[in-house]
Amino acid sequence: MAPVITTNKLTKRFGQFIAANALTFEVGKGEIFGFLGANGAGKTTAMRMLCGLSTPSSGTATVAGFDVYTQTEKIKQNIGYMSQKFSLYDDLTVAENIRFYAGIYGMSTQAIKAKTNQLLQELQLEKEAKTLVKALPSAGNKNSPSPSPSSTTPTSSSSTNPPAESIPSPDASSGTSSTPPRTKE
């Protein structure tokens, strides 16, 4: 069986700095695969190249049969990727987030509606469809409240795109904070 990911000496440089150096590996269909390493080891850089988000400096790679240099849009259309950092919009509901990302990937209105329903059922999130993401409990926020009727926002079933006023500016979604991190004393 042909591998779904192949890399051969895949490298990414930023000036003189080598962020990912000569990565060579294969991942077969059905295999569970991940990168482990210290901060700065190149894990995120490697994933960005494989997802078609960053152009490699040298080497070769294919993902789902598509070239990381010339077929990045095909890669994005054929993979699923969830980063360690939670990347949903807090001020959109679960269903609105699904519709928003489906729209980014150019799905038709009809396909978005069908896929939203399918995902909500498969992930057993039908009851949370109208719940704001910030109201959902998460592993990273043990004190997060459980979803309740007061934390839901009604949405129109005929709408397939999140309301424009609900989509935060890039600064609001960057995950950065002007508050300095607390240090352990």
Plain-language structure description:
This protein is α+β, with helices and mostly antiparallel strands and 185 residues long. It folds into 2 domains: 5-78, Rossmann fold (3-Layer(aba) Sandwich); 94-167, no CATH class. The protein contains 5 helices and 4 strands, in the order ββαββαααα. A 4-stranded antiparallel sheet has the order 2-1-3-4, covered by helices on one side. β3 and β4 form a beta hairpin.
Please describe the topology of this protein.
Layout lengths: L4 E10 L2 E11 L15 H8 L7 E6 L2 E2 L4 H7 L15 H11 L4 H14 L47 H4 L12
Antiparallel strand pairs: 1-2, 1-3, 3-4
Helix pairs in contact: 3-4
Q: How far apart are the termini? A: 54 Å
Specify the biggest β-sheet: 4 strands, antiparallel
Order of helices and strands: EEHEEHHHH
Number of domains: 2
> What is the strand arrangement across the widest sheet?
2-1-3-4
Shape: globular
Q: What amount of the residues lies in strands?
A: 15-25%
CATH architecture of the largest domain: 3-Layer(aba) Sandwich
| Count of individual beta strands | 4
Gyration radius, rounded: 19 Å
Structural class: alpha+beta
Low confidence ranges: 141-185
Find the CATH topology of the largest domain: Rossmann fold
Mean pLDDT: 77
The gist of it:
The chain is α+β, with helices and mostly antiparallel strands. The chain has five helices and four strands.
Core attributes:
5 helices, globular, alpha+beta, Rossmann fold, 2 domains, 185 residues
